[in-house]
Amino acid sequence: MTRALLTVASVLLPLAFAACGEGGQATSQTPASPGTPAPGGAARLLVVTHTEGFRHDSIPAAENALRAIGRESGLFEIELCRTAADVRTRLTPAGLSGVDAVFFANTTGNLGIPDVGAFLGWIAGGKGFVGAHSATDTYHDSPEFISMLGGEFETHGSIVEAQVHVNEPTHPIVAHLAPRFTMTDEWYRFGRLGTGLNVLLSFDRIPPDGVGTAGDPADLPLAWLKPHGAGRVFYTALGHRPEVWDDPRFRQHLLEGIRWALKP
Question: Which pTM was predicted?
Protein backbone atom coordinates (compact mmCIF):
# COMPACT_ATOMS: atom_id res chain seq x y z
CA MET A 1 0.00 0.00 0.00
CA THR A 2 1.31 3.46 -0.92
CA ARG A 3 1.91 6.18 1.69
CA ALA A 4 -1.10 8.13 0.29
CA LEU A 5 -3.44 5.15 0.69
CA LEU A 6 -2.13 4.51 4.19
CA THR A 7 -2.88 8.12 5.09
CA VAL A 8 -6.47 7.85 3.80
CA ALA A 9 -7.00 4.56 5.64
CA SER A 10 -5.70 6.04 8.87
CA VAL A 11 -8.40 8.72 8.64
CA LEU A 12 -11.32 6.56 7.46
CA LEU A 13 -10.91 3.53 9.74
CA PRO A 14 -11.45 5.43 13.03
CA LEU A 15 -14.50 7.10 11.49
CA ALA A 16 -15.89 3.72 10.46
CA PHE A 17 -15.43 2.32 13.95
CA ALA A 18 -17.04 5.45 15.44
CA ALA A 19 -20.03 5.04 13.14
CA CYS A 20 -20.43 1.44 14.33
CA GLY A 21 -20.62 2.54 17.94
CA GLU A 22 -24.43 2.67 17.99
CA GLY A 23 -24.65 -1.03 17.32
CA GLY A 24 -22.11 -1.94 19.98
CA GLN A 25 -22.02 -1.47 23.71
CA ALA A 26 -24.40 1.21 24.97
CA THR A 27 -22.79 4.40 26.13
CA SER A 28 -23.90 6.23 29.23
CA GLN A 29 -26.46 8.97 28.79
CA THR A 30 -25.13 12.51 29.14
CA PRO A 31 -27.75 14.41 31.13
CA ALA A 32 -28.77 17.83 30.01
CA SER A 33 -27.69 20.68 32.22
CA PRO A 34 -30.46 22.04 34.47
CA GLY A 35 -32.40 24.71 32.62
CA THR A 36 -31.55 23.32 29.14
CA PRO A 37 -34.71 23.04 26.99
CA ALA A 38 -35.49 19.62 25.49
CA PRO A 39 -34.94 19.42 21.72
CA GLY A 40 -37.86 20.24 19.45
CA GLY A 41 -39.95 21.80 22.17
CA ALA A 42 -40.56 18.46 23.91
CA ALA A 43 -41.11 18.46 27.66
CA ARG A 44 -38.34 17.35 30.01
CA LEU A 45 -39.17 14.36 32.22
CA LEU A 46 -36.73 13.45 35.00
CA VAL A 47 -37.02 9.70 35.66
CA VAL A 48 -35.89 8.72 39.16
CA THR A 49 -34.93 5.04 39.62
CA HIS A 50 -32.69 5.31 42.70
CA THR A 51 -33.66 2.95 45.53
CA GLU A 52 -32.78 2.73 49.21
CA GLY A 53 -34.97 -0.31 49.89
CA PHE A 54 -36.02 -3.25 47.73
CA ARG A 55 -34.80 -2.88 44.15
CA HIS A 56 -37.08 -4.19 41.42
CA ASP A 57 -35.50 -6.07 38.54
CA SER A 58 -37.99 -4.28 36.28
CA ILE A 59 -36.18 -0.94 36.62
CA PRO A 60 -34.14 -1.34 33.38
CA ALA A 61 -37.38 -2.22 31.57
CA ALA A 62 -38.99 0.89 33.08
CA GLU A 63 -36.19 3.15 31.88
CA ASN A 64 -36.31 1.62 28.39
CA ALA A 65 -40.10 1.87 28.20
CA LEU A 66 -40.18 5.54 29.22
CA ARG A 67 -37.41 6.40 26.78
CA ALA A 68 -39.34 4.66 23.98
CA ILE A 69 -42.67 6.26 24.93
CA GLY A 70 -41.11 9.71 24.88
CA ARG A 71 -39.31 9.15 21.60
CA GLU A 72 -42.28 7.59 19.79
CA SER A 73 -44.81 10.16 20.99
CA GLY A 74 -42.55 13.19 20.71
CA LEU A 75 -44.15 14.42 23.94
CA PHE A 76 -41.08 14.39 26.18
CA GLU A 77 -37.38 13.65 26.50
CA ILE A 78 -36.18 11.74 29.55
CA GLU A 79 -33.22 12.30 31.82
CA LEU A 80 -32.25 9.67 34.38
CA CYS A 81 -31.66 10.13 38.11
CA ARG A 82 -30.19 6.78 39.13
CA THR A 83 -27.88 7.23 42.11
CA ALA A 84 -27.78 8.85 45.54
CA ALA A 85 -25.44 11.48 44.10
CA ASP A 86 -27.91 12.16 41.28
CA VAL A 87 -30.70 12.62 43.83
CA ARG A 88 -28.65 15.11 45.84
CA THR A 89 -27.96 17.25 42.79
CA ARG A 90 -31.10 16.85 40.64
CA LEU A 91 -33.97 16.79 43.16
CA THR A 92 -33.29 20.34 44.30
CA PRO A 93 -34.76 23.63 43.04
CA ALA A 94 -31.58 24.30 41.05
CA GLY A 95 -31.33 20.77 39.69
CA LEU A 96 -34.97 20.82 38.62
CA SER A 97 -34.64 24.05 36.67
CA GLY A 98 -36.17 23.47 33.24
CA VAL A 99 -37.72 20.12 34.21
CA ASP A 100 -41.46 19.84 33.59
CA ALA A 101 -42.29 16.68 35.54
CA VAL A 102 -40.63 14.00 37.66
CA PHE A 103 -41.39 10.27 37.37
CA PHE A 104 -40.62 8.00 40.36
CA ALA A 105 -40.28 4.61 38.64
CA ASN A 106 -40.18 1.86 41.29
CA THR A 107 -38.29 3.97 43.83
CA THR A 108 -38.13 2.72 47.42
CA GLY A 109 -37.06 4.05 50.81
CA ASN A 110 -35.76 7.45 51.85
CA LEU A 111 -33.98 8.62 48.70
CA GLY A 112 -31.91 11.33 50.33
CA ILE A 113 -33.57 14.35 48.73
CA PRO A 114 -31.76 17.27 50.42
CA ASP A 115 -34.98 19.17 51.18
CA VAL A 116 -38.19 17.17 50.75
CA GLY A 117 -40.28 20.25 51.52
CA ALA A 118 -38.62 22.21 48.72
CA PHE A 119 -39.15 19.30 46.32
CA LEU A 120 -42.85 19.10 47.20
CA GLY A 121 -43.07 22.87 46.85
CA TRP A 122 -41.64 22.59 43.34
CA ILE A 123 -44.50 20.23 42.42
CA ALA A 124 -47.07 22.46 44.13
CA GLY A 125 -45.81 25.39 42.06
CA GLY A 126 -47.35 23.87 38.93
CA LYS A 127 -45.16 20.90 37.94
CA GLY A 128 -46.05 17.27 37.31
CA PHE A 129 -45.38 14.18 39.40
CA VAL A 130 -45.88 10.62 38.15
CA GLY A 131 -45.31 7.52 40.25
CA ALA A 132 -45.41 3.85 39.30
CA HIS A 133 -45.73 0.81 41.54
CA SER A 134 -43.31 1.19 44.48
CA ALA A 135 -43.30 4.98 44.35
CA THR A 136 -45.75 4.43 47.22
CA ASP A 137 -43.05 2.40 49.02
CA THR A 138 -40.95 5.58 49.17
CA TYR A 139 -40.60 8.06 52.06
CA HIS A 140 -42.76 6.22 54.58
CA ASP A 141 -41.22 8.59 57.15
CA SER A 142 -42.59 11.69 55.38
CA PRO A 143 -46.32 12.31 55.87
CA GLU A 144 -45.98 15.28 53.52
CA PHE A 145 -44.68 13.08 50.70
CA ILE A 146 -47.43 10.48 51.28
CA SER A 147 -50.02 13.26 51.26
CA MET A 148 -48.67 14.60 47.95
CA LEU A 149 -48.72 11.13 46.38
CA GLY A 150 -52.13 10.16 47.75
CA GLY A 151 -51.40 6.85 49.46
CA GLU A 152 -48.82 4.54 51.04
CA PHE A 153 -47.98 0.92 50.21
CA GLU A 154 -48.91 -1.46 53.02
CA THR A 155 -48.76 -5.02 51.68
CA HIS A 156 -49.12 -7.30 48.67
CA GLY A 157 -49.78 -10.96 47.96
CA SER A 158 -48.59 -13.38 45.30
CA ILE A 159 -48.09 -12.38 41.69
CA VAL A 160 -51.31 -13.47 39.99
CA GLU A 161 -53.52 -12.75 37.03
CA ALA A 162 -56.40 -10.54 38.10
CA GLN A 163 -59.24 -8.57 36.55
CA VAL A 164 -59.09 -4.82 37.07
CA HIS A 165 -62.13 -2.54 37.01
CA VAL A 166 -61.94 0.77 35.11
CA ASN A 167 -63.61 3.47 37.22
CA GLU A 168 -63.43 6.27 34.66
CA PRO A 169 -64.04 4.57 31.28
CA THR A 170 -64.01 7.84 29.31
CA HIS A 171 -60.77 9.20 30.75
CA PRO A 172 -57.91 9.09 28.18
CA ILE A 173 -55.54 7.49 30.71
CA VAL A 174 -57.70 4.36 31.01
CA ALA A 175 -60.29 4.49 28.19
CA HIS A 176 -58.37 1.87 26.19
CA LEU A 177 -58.63 -0.51 29.17
CA ALA A 178 -62.38 -0.12 29.77
CA PRO A 179 -64.57 -1.59 31.05
CA ARG A 180 -62.24 -4.23 32.55
CA PHE A 181 -58.91 -5.80 31.70
CA THR A 182 -56.84 -8.72 32.93
CA MET A 183 -53.16 -8.50 33.78
CA THR A 184 -50.60 -10.48 35.75
CA ASP A 185 -48.73 -8.38 38.30
CA GLU A 186 -48.06 -7.86 42.00
CA TRP A 187 -51.08 -6.10 43.49
CA TYR A 188 -50.60 -3.48 46.19
CA ARG A 189 -52.86 -2.62 49.12
CA PHE A 190 -52.63 0.93 50.46
CA GLY A 191 -52.93 2.85 53.69
CA ARG A 192 -53.09 6.57 54.41
CA LEU A 193 -55.20 7.08 51.30
CA GLY A 194 -55.94 10.74 50.73
CA THR A 195 -59.37 12.24 50.32
CA GLY A 196 -60.48 13.57 46.97
CA LEU A 197 -58.57 11.06 44.84
CA ASN A 198 -59.89 10.66 41.31
CA VAL A 199 -59.60 6.86 41.18
CA LEU A 200 -59.10 5.54 37.64
CA LEU A 201 -58.53 1.81 38.28
CA SER A 202 -59.50 -0.43 41.17
CA PHE A 203 -60.40 -3.90 42.31
CA ASP A 204 -64.10 -4.25 43.02
CA ARG A 205 -63.43 -7.88 43.99
CA ILE A 206 -60.49 -9.14 46.03
CA PRO A 207 -57.94 -10.71 43.66
CA PRO A 208 -56.78 -14.31 44.21
CA ASP A 209 -53.37 -13.32 45.59
CA GLY A 210 -53.77 -14.58 49.16
CA VAL A 211 -54.57 -11.23 50.81
CA GLY A 212 -58.18 -11.50 51.92
CA THR A 213 -60.86 -13.79 50.54
CA ALA A 214 -60.68 -13.94 46.76
CA GLY A 215 -63.89 -12.82 45.09
CA ASP A 216 -65.29 -10.88 48.02
CA PRO A 217 -66.56 -7.37 47.20
CA ALA A 218 -63.86 -4.74 47.62
CA ASP A 219 -62.94 -1.15 46.88
CA LEU A 220 -59.17 -1.23 46.37
CA PRO A 221 -57.74 1.66 44.31
CA LEU A 222 -54.91 0.96 41.87
CA ALA A 223 -54.46 4.19 39.91
CA TRP A 224 -55.52 7.75 40.62
CA LEU A 225 -55.13 11.44 39.89
CA LYS A 226 -54.93 14.29 42.37
CA PRO A 227 -53.79 17.89 42.62
CA HIS A 228 -50.89 19.06 44.74
CA GLY A 229 -51.24 22.81 44.95
CA ALA A 230 -51.09 23.92 41.33
CA GLY A 231 -49.28 20.69 40.39
CA ARG A 232 -50.70 17.45 38.97
CA VAL A 233 -50.07 13.98 40.41
CA PHE A 234 -50.71 10.67 38.61
CA TYR A 235 -50.01 7.32 40.27
CA THR A 236 -50.44 3.75 39.00
CA ALA A 237 -49.77 0.63 41.06
CA LEU A 238 -48.91 -1.45 38.01
CA GLY A 239 -45.31 -2.13 37.02
CA HIS A 240 -43.77 -4.78 39.29
CA ARG A 241 -42.88 -7.17 36.46
CA PRO A 242 -40.61 -6.28 33.52
CA GLU A 243 -43.22 -7.77 31.19
CA VAL A 244 -45.76 -5.17 32.29
CA TRP A 245 -43.48 -2.33 31.14
CA ASP A 246 -43.33 -3.99 27.70
CA ASP A 247 -47.12 -4.33 27.49
CA PRO A 248 -48.55 -1.83 24.94
CA ARG A 249 -51.62 -1.32 27.17
CA PHE A 250 -49.47 -0.21 30.08
CA ARG A 251 -47.36 2.02 27.85
CA GLN A 252 -50.51 3.75 26.59
CA HIS A 253 -51.64 4.12 30.22
CA LEU A 254 -48.31 5.78 31.08
CA LEU A 255 -48.24 8.01 28.01
CA GLU A 256 -51.64 9.48 28.74
CA GLY A 257 -50.86 9.79 32.45
CA ILE A 258 -47.67 11.71 31.68
CA ARG A 259 -49.53 13.86 29.17
CA TRP A 260 -52.10 14.74 31.84
CA ALA A 261 -49.41 15.51 34.44
CA LEU A 262 -47.61 17.83 32.01
CA LYS A 263 -50.64 20.04 31.37
CA PRO A 264 -50.29 23.54 32.88
Answer: 0.87
